[in-house]
Each structure stands twice: as structure tokens, then as C-alpha cells.
Write a structure and sequence with these properties.
Layout lengths: L12 H29 L7 H22 L4 H16 L16 H29 L9 H17 L14 E9 L2 E9 L6 E5 L8 H7 L8 E6 L17 H18 L5 E6 L1 H12 L4 E7 L5 H18 L3 H10 L7 H8 L3 H4 L6 H10 L13 H18 L8 H4 L6 E7 L4 H13 L5 E6 L6 H4 L1 H10 L7
Parallel strand pairs: 3-4, 3-5, 5-6, 6-7, 7-8
Antiparallel strand pairs: 1-2, 2-4
Helix pairs in contact: 1-2, 1-3, 2-4, 2-5, 3-4, 4-5, 6-13, 7-8, 9-10, 9-16
């Protein structure tokens, strides 16, 4: 009897091993490509809740595919670095502080790293890991408790990110509150409208910075004014809720002034009033003066709080005053630090941030009015207002990002501004509020500008127990001024 002979075709070791290598090459390449795509689409990382969810969904799907193709738990470890490499290489075209290379030399640099890198890395990396875990289930434990828990947490996070914020109501008969988008200069920006009677005059508030979002602060601190005026807070492009509108190439001082004029015109139409009141705080005071100069027919009065006139002169004087204060106090370390930093202007927003932390040395000790302190404490809006009901979770991050990114775009453009030269007259009434603890470096040029200014009516108020944010600290006095001393909007 003859025995059967079995024949088999030998398998090439190289062809057998080429399949996993090919799967790895495709998976890693796709991860890097997806990261580069997101880096090009939005170098700052997700700037809206919808973008954040889309990043999470796309990376989770990529992770699942990579885990499926490679059939390896190592996908969860190797795909995220590939994605982040593509993302970081693609976003290098942006010079914004939260996107630029690491600058860990200050607390502001560390904050920029957290906002511009840690947050987007986690929003992309964690879903990649979870997705890869599900894709490679054939080598996972029978009961994937960790994967189920991670997936549930991501689902809850995604839902939380897209829940729209609801403005705090005005608790009076006829009270109204609204968060509304407006199109200004071709960009979507946000305003908060609060009032008790739609027939009341409208007060448009311009926040400081550049880059500060004051929606939450103005809601809380200016509430005493609601019986007399409808208050409109505005997140300028690049700040808070309007942070996605920040465009490094097109945001100029001229365009920012144009946004104010467009918004004021929108408000006159919306409330059927010929003019509005304009309240500018700090950087917003420069913006307010220039807007009143450009379109005086839209404004019944311009009110200044912490008026800025010549940014470069003021910054240089603050620097000199800080050195003098440090020497009087025998603080040699601070004198050496300031000497190393040198006089302004500075190339980095972080250098300006350091100087700002030293302002209390020049303000002196004082106690704002009790009403202001109680209202601020009861508001519970958190540092920089990030806990305000006006912001969704990503917008809370944008409040902090705008402080650095919008400042870095706009502040260098203010170095040549001197209102004493460019605005010698205004065709609107002017009221300047100056706190008795305002920095001397700000008061001197502001008073010089005011004394030279020609206007149909003007008045300077030196108010006690107040510093730079005098309109907030002395909201009661501001209410009296609005009620008794400013021209009516219909006049």
C-alpha cells in the first residue's frame, strides 16, 4: 500500500511579516495626517464645543481602525504620538502665544502650555487610546471594564461640551437677558443684553485688555444700572465667546474700531433709538474714543473708565516707577529682575504679564466701596470671570486664551497711539472717571489729553476708593452720573 503524500506551499516569512508592517505604516500615517489636518484647520486647537467633539469623534474612529488593522494593543501607545507630531508640525505657522514654542519661564508661559497643548492633546489623545483599545479587542480581556468606563466618560464629556450656556435672568418685572451672536466685520461675535425696560437708553460697554472678556463681570458689577439703562456687554473678536473670530492677519486697530461702529449701529436699529451711551474701560477707552471720533452721530456720550492715552509712554513710566518703588523698599532682587527685563516695549506677552503682577506696588492700599465688594463676592464668577454662566466649557478656556492671544495681536499696534495727537476734539459729550488709586503713569497723560480736548461738554470725576476699574468700583456714582449729568439719547 502506498502512503498518501501531503503537499503544502511554503509561506514566505517576509510576506507573512509584511502584512502587520503594512498595517502599522498605514495606521501611523493616517494618525499623522489627521493630526496635520486639524493643525491646519485650527492651529489653536478646538475653539468651540462642536470642534472639540469632532476632534474626539474623528480620533476615536481613527484609533478603532488602527487597533483593528494592527490587531495590537500597542496601537493605543503609538497612534497618539503620531497624531500629535502631525498636529504640532502643521500648526507651526501660527505665532500666537498659546501655539508658539514652549516658554515655561513664567506662570503665564505655563498657562499657555496648558491651554494650547495639554488641552488639545488630551481631547485628541484619550479618544485615540480608547478607540484603539476597542479596535484591538481580540487581544483584550474578556470584560473590558476600563474601556467601557473610558467610553462612558468620553460620551459624557462630549455632551457637556456642546450644552449651550444660558444667561442669568434679570429678576425684576419685565426683565430680559440674552446672549446673541452678531456679525461684525465679517466675523461672528457675541453680545450679552440685559435690561428691565426695552425703552431705556442703551449702554455699550467696551472691556479692557486687549483680550479681556468682561461679560460675567459687567453682568454682576453693573447690575445697579439696569433700572436706568439696558447694558450691552460685548466679547470683542479674539476674546471669550468671540475667541474663534481672532484672525492674526486681519485684526487691526482700524478694524476693531469698525467693529464698535457696526455694533453701535446694530443696537440703534434693534432698540429703535437714535444713539447709545459708550463706556470704555482701559483698552476699551482707546477703542471708545476712536469710535466716537469716527461716528459721533451714534453716541449720546462717551464715558471713560481708566482712560488710556499713550500706551508706550504709560508703560515706560510704569517701568520707571516700579524700579523706584523696588529701590525704596530695598527689594534688590526686583530691581535686578527689572533691569534684566529692560524698559518696554516687550516682544513677549509674558513680559507684560509679569509687569502687570507688580501694579499693586504702585496702586497703594485701599478698600473699594462695600457695595462693590459684596456684589463681586456674591457674583462667584471666578478668576477672570471664567465661572460665569455666559461661557460653555471651551469658552471658559477661550477667556484665558484670549487674554494672551488677542493681546499679542493688538497690543503692538497700540505702541504708536497718542490720543493727544490723533484726537484733539470730539463731537460728543465726554465724561472721564478717574480713581484716586489709579497709576500716576495713566492719570498724567489722560489729564493732559482731557485738558486739551474740545467737546460739546466734558467733565472729569476724581472718585475715591477706586483704582483702574473705577466704573466697576464706583458703579453707584456711575448710575448717578447717567441719571443726572449725561445728555439724553434723544437729545
Amino acid at each position: 500500500m502506498t502512503s498518501a503524500v501531503k503537499f503544502s506551499i511554503p509561506t514566505s516569512p517576509s510576506s507573512a511579516s509584511s502584512r502587520p508592517r503594512f498595517a502599522w505604516a498605514i495606521s501611523l500615517s493616517l494618525a499623522a495626517a489627521l493630526g496635520a489636518t486639524w493643525g491646519l484647520v485650527e492651529p489653536r486647537g478646538p475653539v468651540t464645543g462642536a470642534q472639540a467633539v469632532l476632534v474626539m469623534v474623528s480620533t476615536a474612529l481613527l484609533g478603532w481602525l488602527g487597533g483593528r488593522w494592527t490587531a495590537s494593543r500597542a496601537a493605543a501607545a503609538l497612534l497618539p504620538p503620531a497624531f500629535l507630531l502631525g498636529f504640532e508640525l502643521a500648526r507651526r505657522t501660527s505665532g500666537l502665544p498659546t501655539v508658539a514654542p514652549f516658554d515655561p519661564g513664567s506662570e503665564f508661559g505655563l498657562l499657555a502650555i496648558a491651554l494650547g497643548r495639554v488641552v488639545p492633546w488630551l481631547l485628541a489623545g484619550v479618544p485615540l487610546v480608547v478607540g484603539a483599545g476597542w479596535g484591538s479587542r481580540r487581544v483584550q480581556p474578556r470584560r473590558p471594564v476600563a474601556l467601557v468606563a473610558g467610553s462612558a466618560a468620553l460620551a459624557l464629556l462630549a455632551g457637556w461640551l456642546v450644552v449651550p450656556p444660558v444667561p442669568n435672568p434679570v429678576h425684576t418685572a419685565g426683565g430680559f437677558a440674552e446672549l446673541a451672536p452678531v456679525e461684525l466685520g465679517g466675523h461672528r461675535q457675541w453680545i450679552e443684553i440685559r435690561g428691565t425696560d426695552r425703552r431705556n437708553p442703551v449702554l455699550l460697554y467696551l472691556s479692557g485688555g486687549p483680550g479681556q472678556s468682561d461679560l460675567a463681570f459687567s453682568r454682576v458689577i453693573l447690575e445697579p444700572l439696569l433700572d436706568d439703562v439696558t447694558i450691552v456687554g460685548w466679547d470683542q473678536r479674539g476674546t471669550g465667546k468671540s475667541y474663534p473670530a481672532l484672525d492674526e492677519g486681519s485684526l487691526t486697530l482700524d478694524r476693531a474700531v469698525g467693529d464698535v461702529v457696526e455694533l453701535a449701529r446694530h443696537l440703534t436699529r434693534r432698540f429703535s433709538q437714535p444713539r447709545v451711551y459708550l463706556l470704555g474701560e482701559s483698552w476699551g477707552s482707546i477703542l471708545g474714543v476712536l469710535a466716537a471720533q469716527r461716528a459721533p452721530e451714534l453716541f449720546a456720550a462717551y464715558i471713560a473708565s481708566g482712560q488710556m492715552v499713550d500706551v508706550l509712554e504709560t508703560d515706560a513710566a510704569i517701568y520707571t516707577d516700579l524700579i523706584s518703588a523696588a529701590m525704596r523698599n530695598g527689594n534688590g532682587a526686583l530691581v535686578a529682575e527689572l533691569a534684566t527685563l529692560g524698559p518696554p516695549p516687550y516682544p513677549s506677552v509674558f513680559d507684560y504679564g509679569r509687569i502687570m503682577t507688580l501694579y499693586p506696588l504702585l496702586e497703594g492700599s485701599y478698600s473699594p466701596p462695600q457695595e462693590y465688594r459684596e456684589r463681586a463676592a456674591a457674583g462667584k464668577v471666578g478668576p477672570f470671570g471664567i465661572l460665569g454662566a455666559e461661557y460653555d466649557p471651551i469658552e471658559k478656556l477661550n477667556v484665558l486664551r484670549g487674554l494672551m492671544d488677542m493681546f499679542s495681536v493688538m497690543y503692538p499696534q497700540l505702541q504708536q497711539v497718542d490720543l493727544r495727537q490723533s484726537v484733539t476734539s470730539l463731537d460728543v459729550a465726554v465724561i472721564v472717571l478717574s480713581g484716586d488709586h489709579e497709576l500716576a503713569a495713566r492719570v498724567a497723560p489722560a489729564r493732559d489729553w482731557y485738558d486739551r480736548l474740545r467737546a460739546p461738554g466734558k467733565k472729569w470725576y476724581a472718585l475715591p476708593d477706586a483704582g483702574h476699574s473705577v466704573a466697576f468700583e464706583q458703579a453707584g456714582e456711575l448710575r448717578r452720573i447717567l441719571a443726572e449729568e449725561v445728555p439724553p439719547v434723544s437729545g
